[in-house]
Amino acid sequence: MAAPQRLSDFVDGERLWARHMALATFGARADGGVDRPTLSPQEAQARAQMIAWGRAIGLEPFTDKAANLFLRLEGRDPSLAPVVAGSHIDSQPTGGKFDGVFGVLAALETAAAIVARGEQPLRPFEIVAWTNEEGSRFAPGMTGSDLFTGTKALEAVLPIRDADGISIGEAVASILAADDKVPLRAFGLPIAAYVEPHIEQASVLEEAGIPIGIVSGIQGTRRYRIRVMGEAAHAGTALRKDRRDALMAAVRMIRAIDEAAMEPADTLLTVGMLQVTPNAPSVVPAEVFFSIDLRHPDNAVVDRVDAAIRRIVEEMKGNCSVELKQIQHSPSLNFAPAIRSAIAEAAAARGIPAMDVYSAAGHDARQLHYICPAGMIFVPCRGGVSHNPDEWAEPEHLTAGAQVLADVVWHLANSA
């Protein structure tokens, strides 16, 4: 007698790859990358394609006031909380074809496998594409999952504007208006479990020759915006002792903050944005605006450097004034052991090598972790390169990740 087929036996790797290439045409860059800002016309096109693929296999689309997109496969008992899997489809301006998209398409492939198998799970299964994970157009990121889980309030988020002055509220309204008969749901739908597949965005799996990463947790992060205000003056006549030079004050701050974050050696500190006003060669800078991104797995380290940052900006401001705003604080976390075990067991059952890894980058699974059992599946990406047109994942690794996801979802969706 033949062994019963696993759901993963119905995963179609060629279809999964073809859909990655198809979604990459929405916002395609000449260099092979993807520029698909959140809540943009390009994302609306990708969203419409996802809805069309879902409807073709009987999935029902839903959205909410954050424009999160859900595709629902009904369970035998619709009253039960669904199992949810997915990620995001927005990209960085110089993004690749796989970041976020793999999680959404692996979840869609899981639904397609369930339909092909012809058996309905006990619980509903939902695919999700979260809004504004990247935070490149509207800062900070994770907007959709923050609003869904109640971490942030709608009225605090909708007024946030992009560089062109367009608000999140206006952008969401445009996306929802473009949807074709997609019902609106309230935030906070109860979820039985959440699983997010993703490319690793690091090289641990590739160097180990392992196709599946069982993500143990996500490191803590704090993000800041700092504004230093001085006074514009003539570069040839204003004496140094009289100047209120915002850039010199900012440089002192950045150097001291960098030194404060040197220990331990794996502390990550990034000043990725620096804006100088008026930015003219013969004018003493009147204002400087810069960002700080601080990360470490140990919350105590993050908290210690946070205290140093707050002290340093005051000590180094000189005769300028300074405003510090923390825009995000996400403590380190460990994912649910039950989800991690389910991923390990699914990989082992298919004979796919797997190992534990830790996520240095943030993901929507962080927000979901606080409302339901959550976990992540990583697959390798070449050279660890991501947020880059050269981002690349091998088709066989994407297929393996989708196979593991399918069996994990089937297990979770048939658990009472």
TrEMBL record:
Keyword Phosphoprotein assigned: no
UniProt entry keywords in alphabetical sequence: Hydrolase
SUPFAM superfamilies the record matches: Bacterial exopeptidase dimerisation domain (SSF55031), Zn-dependent exopeptidases (SSF53187)
Gene3D superfamilies: 3.30.70.360, Zn peptidases (3.40.630.10)
Pfam families in the record: M20_dimer, Peptidase_M20
An annotated Gene Ontology molecular function: hydrolase activity
Ranges where the Peptidase M20 dimerisation domain occurs: 218-316
Superkingdom, natural source: Bacteria
Family: Belongs to the peptidase M20 family.
Protein name per the record: N-carbamoyl-L-amino-acid hydrolase
Organism per entry: Bosea robiniae
